[in-house]
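Sharing a chain and its predicted structure for anyone who wants a worked example. Both blocks are below, sequence first, tokens second.
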Amino acid sequence: MAITIPGGLNLKETLLEIKAEFAGYFKEREAEINGSLLAVLSGENLLFLGPPGTAKTQLAGSICQIIEGGNFFNYLLTSFSTPEEIFGPLSLKALEEDEFRRNINGCLPTAHVALLDEIFKASSAILNSLLTILNERKYHNGREIVDVPLLSVFGASNELPEEDESLEALYDRFLFRYRLSYIQDDENFKNLLFREPEDFRPSARIPVSEIEELRKNANSLSVDPDVEIIITELRKNLQLQEIEISDRRWKRIVQVLKVAACSSGCSAVDRTMALLLQHMLWNLPEERETIRKAVFKLVVSGGTDTEKLRQDAEDLRTALSIALKNELPVRVVCDSCGEEFQLRETLEVHHAACPNHSYTLRQEGNSRIYPYDNLVREIESLHVSSGKKSTLSQSQREVFEIEFEALADRINRVKKRLEEEKELLRDLMEANIWLSTADRNEALLLHDTGSSELSGTEEFITEIRDILSLQDKGGRAAGSVPVKPSSSGLLSEVSHSGSHAAKVEAKVQASDLGNNAGGFIKGLGSRFKLR
């Protein structure tokens, strides 16, 4: 259900208008603008890490201006800052009545949006009250517990907190995290210096009541099953890399995704909403790229590593090639001790034990004696001239066919999913107003890269099929089977620019999420020796 803003626009249209205004003024800050707006709408806090002079204060202040009747509080904290500076001075009138109470008017407890610069320099006297405000939106003013109107607190810092339990608790309260840098593009830099006005005032306004209604509507929004799979697999992935995320953060992340979907006019949280996880999961700046790649891989291809599939196909072809050459094209006899060989591996073992022995071929018309190196070249030549596609034993053939069928089946399923999902991704991302242009482009590029890698993989599959002399039955690759729907029946409903909803299939199959095909060469080696 679309939420209508006084004046005729619905919330989605208003947000798009606000985003366009902000992006036109704050250059190279699209992701930060999206995160700031979404933090306010979802009632979460946001942290900016970066050097001074990157427009952190101006951005936070401008975000507050879009709140109808919003109050903005801004303060630079130092290690000497006192509670009076943040929460207000002691009330003299209350002291006369033997009560300890502060006059909070105009201070943090009465603000809708606040920016606390150098947030991690907060003293312990400030910290306890600050943690309660950040987490519960309540302030203990003497005997009274005050519900604060804060929609979001923006924290800013040049550096992360040192190892301190209290500061780590404070850090965990900031769900959104962004690393800011100075403007990079020359044209944007010139616009900042010479063309943009100093004072920026957004024209659109959002009443607090509409934000509250949005959150209420978001609570009842469903989450697509594939999003549940993405989050579960991502958590496992991060745990393996010893990146721990608190249960509280995961719970709040899901609520943010619901608000993002609801404000985009979507009827459910689809997988493109999960791309926002990249801004809410890292603890250290060096973890950002690792998390970003993991998120995109899960969202775009269900975690399937198409490069790994290609490598598996290449490894299988290599193993098959080695196995084919293991059976000698003719029998070989050691001229020195008379031992006879039919397999290349036993010949190699003999040569390692007796490096000076020479050999003859049991071939009509050939009585030459070969040193080992010359013998190897002759054997290679005979393999080529024989034109044999397969000299595998029955047990070897069965092993290779099983491995081939399993790999071909996985490739077929991934190919089908990639073919189906491109238009799906486009539709979902067009409906999602919270993705940056860079995120959209990267998702589509990752999809195209996966499709390209899969084309190279199919060439290996064709070559393996030819070597094994398998038939392509019914126009399908040997070993392929019809792709069955995911057991969870994963369906996403997409709302496209307010038009009718279209149910589209969004498959993320758990069986392809890990490296479950990895190491099959090692598995082959355990079944029969490949040298």
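Comments welcome. Confidence is low (pLDDT under 50) at residues 471-531.
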